[in-house]
Amino acid sequence: MIKPIVAIVGRPNVGKSTLFNRIVGERISIVEDKPSITRDRIYGDAEWLGRPFILVDTGGIELDTENTIKEQMRYQAEIAIDEAEVILFVVDVRTGLTNMDRDVANFLRQSNKPVILAVNKAENYKQAEMDKYDFYELGFGEPYLISAQHGQQTGDLLDQVIDHFPDLEEDPYDDQTTKISVIGRPNVGKSSLVNKILGEERVIVSDIAGTTRDAIDTPFTHQDNNYVIIDTAGMRRKGKVGRGVEKYSVIRSLRAVDRSDVVLMVIDASEGITDQDKKIAGYAHEEGKGIIIVVNKWDLVEKNNNTMNHYIEEIRYQAGFLNYAPITFVSALTGQRVLEVLDLVDYVSEQHSRRVKTNLLNSVIEDAVAMFQPPSDKHGKRLKIFYATQPKVNPPLFVLFVNDAELMHFSYKRYLENQIRKAFGFEGSPIKLITRER
């Protein structure tokens, strides 16, 4: 399912980041009572009344400025607005309507997107009720009085937001088609890898980072299996986004992950795995997608007998949460091992949809408990696992029925996951364990 995007915009210091944190439920965005703290787009997963969406926090828009950082903030906001289905325009009732608010409003009208006006810092509700009428001048209909800091009226605001969401899109591909997204930072060779797999020039290949500006779907068949490969815009490190050709979006890449079954996480052999790679892969991991780590440009690396093993050890060390993901070393330029990628896709797709018989699963859990006793609390009450089931696949989900869910320590849960993997594989697929009290 593709998640709608909601962009929070407005002039600096009106409480955009506070509202972002309130809706997402975590303190992701920096909040400080000083303008221009948020200088880049920040993304978070949110949900309201069963509708998931992606929330984007932006730097304050200042339209008449020669300041380079503020100009970059404005540009980042432009990208967020361009991506969004709904725009939350935040103003400050304490300061009142300003000329900068009017300028931002004129800017937003050019987007032709639904704009919901949130009048923030309305803790003194009676006074705010009188002051809100000035904001009708902006031309966005009813101003919604909120207090992002205290959460007042934010539910009513979100009701309006989801009313503007598009209808849920149906997947155009059937269950027999494996959907592959190709993700990674710019210029690691994603488009070249796609071209080599397809055997034809379907997407632009260029040394200029960021030439692939949107996700491109290419259905194809290989050995009687149906696939669609989704090539995405490269994800850029913060501070590296420029104008013109760079007007691609992280969000489009995340949306491609949402739509896929298996993710090819492409990294550059000459650079190794980076923090940005881990963030990108982390999103795919959290979304429960099958993952293959593809180390590209392997032909450029000077090798000895241990080079590949050293690379594998480094990736496992740097990204321990992906220890289940197979690693393959390819050269999109020469074609080295490129066709093996599709064999891995088939294998990971099968692992991702594997279902374990209940009696075999419980036998493995019983053996694991016998080898390593479950934890207990300080009063001596010990965790008991009565039985386990697997209600879902893609990704595999296991439910453990226990006497007290609070006794399940994360380290013991990780131990059980490792035992399940040891017995049944699930290579390339995250697995999820949840506990339920019987």
Question: How would the blueprint of this fold be written?
Answer:
Layout: E1 5-9, H1 16-24, E2 42-48, E3 51-57, H2 68-83, E4 86-92, H3 99-109, E5 115-120, H4 125-131, E6 144-145, H5 154-163, E7 177-183, H6 190-198, E8 216-222, E9 225-231, H7 250-259, E10 262-268, H8 275-286, E11 290-296, H9 307-318, E12 327-329, H10 338-352, H11 358-371, E13 385-392, E14 397-402, H12 410-424, E15 432-437
Parallel strand pairs: 1-3, 1-4, 4-5, 5-6, 7-9, 7-10, 10-11, 11-12, 14-15
Antiparallel strand pairs: 2-3, 8-9, 13-14
Helix pairs in contact: 11-12
Description:
Helices cover 32% and strands 21% of the residues. By secondary structure, it is of the alpha/beta class. Strands 2-3-1-4-5-6 form a six-stranded mixed sheet, sandwiched between helices. Helix 4 links the parallel strand 5 and strand 6 (144-145). The longest helix has 16 residues, at 68-83. The protein starts with a strand and ends with a strand.
The gross shape turns out to be: globular
Strand order of the largest sheet: 2-3-1-4-5-6
- Helical percentage: 25-40%
Low-pLDDT windows of residues: 27-41, 201-214, 233-249
The number of strands is: 15
Mean of residue pLDDT values: 82
Structural class: alpha/beta
Q: How many angstroms separate the termini? A: 32 Å
Largest sheet: 6 strands, mixed
Helix-strand sequence: EHEEHEHEHEHEHEEHEHEHEHHEEHE
Radius of gyration of CA atoms, rounded to a whole number: 25 Å
Give the strand content.
Answer: 15-25%
Number of helices: 12
